[in-house]
Structures are given as structure tokens and as C-alpha cells.
Amino acid sequence: MENREPLKPLLLAFPGPVRDQLVEAVLRGEKVSTTGLLVEYEVEREELPPVGERSALIDSGGREVAVVELTEVRVLPLGSVDLRHALDEGEGYTSVAAWRTAHEAFWHSAEMREGLGDPTFTVDDDTMVVAERFRVVERLD
């Protein structure tokens, strides 16, 4: 993809083993959805991405490894996330409960709380999340 416009980065988790696992799952086609907190967009003063937007998937080394295109963006309460979305995250979850446990651990981590500027941040069923669905349109390796 020579001479293309710079793309907004798609950063999954924080750099390190978890990001590396998620990036590999995207490249294998196993991970086709992801979930973020609406409050993250508010803190960063970012607008929600529109369907059709393309982003560069970034690995832990800061390299662009693929171009992904958003195919769906939903804002919903955490308690409304369904099994299809949890399965499509491609991380091996077999239930919404398992998906939620892992996501709550991430969202309640010191790194996330620091990023949000709230050392006591917690989620509950009413916490608004951004559920995104995407597809890889080009690998950059």
C-alpha cells in the first residue's frame, strides 16, 4: 500500500503480550470485534469512529501490520453485550460471563484507571461500551 494517506491507529490493549495475542488473532481472522469504554472517547475528546473508517492495526513494536475497516459500531450498556460479540472477540471466550470477567479485569487495571484519570474507576451493567466489528482489508507484512 504505497503512498497512502496516514491511517488512524488501532491499538488493542496495551503494548506487550496481550496486544501481541490480539493482533495475531486479528491476522488469523479469529478476532473480528472489540469493545471499548465510551468514557475513553470522552476523556480523549474523540468522536466515535464511523462505519467504513479504515485504521492501521498496530503491534507492540509500533509497526502497522494490517489495515482494518469498521463494519459496525454500537454503543450499548455493558449488561447488553451478547454472546455473538463475546465469541467474535476471538479470545477464546465461551460465555458472556467469561468475556466480562476478562474485560472487567482490564478495565479495572491500574493502567486503565490511570489513563482515565480515575484511580477508583469501575464498571457495572449500565456502563456504556462501544462494540466495534471490523474486517482486515490488507495485511502489511
What this model shows, in words?
The protein has a five-stranded mixed β-sheet. The chain starts with 7 loop residues before the first strand and ends with a strand. The chain has a single domain (8-136), classed as Sulfate adenylyltransferase (Roll). β3 (54-58) and β4 (64-77) form a beta hairpin. The model has no long low-confidence stretch (mean pLDDT 94). With 141 residues, it is an alpha+beta fold. It is 30% helix and 28% strand.
Write a concise keyword list for the protein shown above.
single chain; 5 strands; Sulfate adenylyltransferase; 141 residues; alpha+beta
Show the helix and strand layout:
Blueprint: E1 8-10, H1 17-27, E2 33-37, H2 38-44, E3 54-58, E4 64-77, H3 83-88, H4 96-107, H5 110-116, E5 128-139
Parallel strand pairs: 1-3
Antiparallel strand pairs: 2-5, 3-4, 4-5
- CATH architecture, by name, is Roll
CATH topology: Sulfate adenylyltransferase
| CA radius of gyration | 15 Å
Mean pLDDT score, rounded? 94
Protein name: ASCH domain-containing protein
InterPro entries: ASCH_domain, DUF984, PUA-like_sf
Pfam families: ASCH (PF04266)
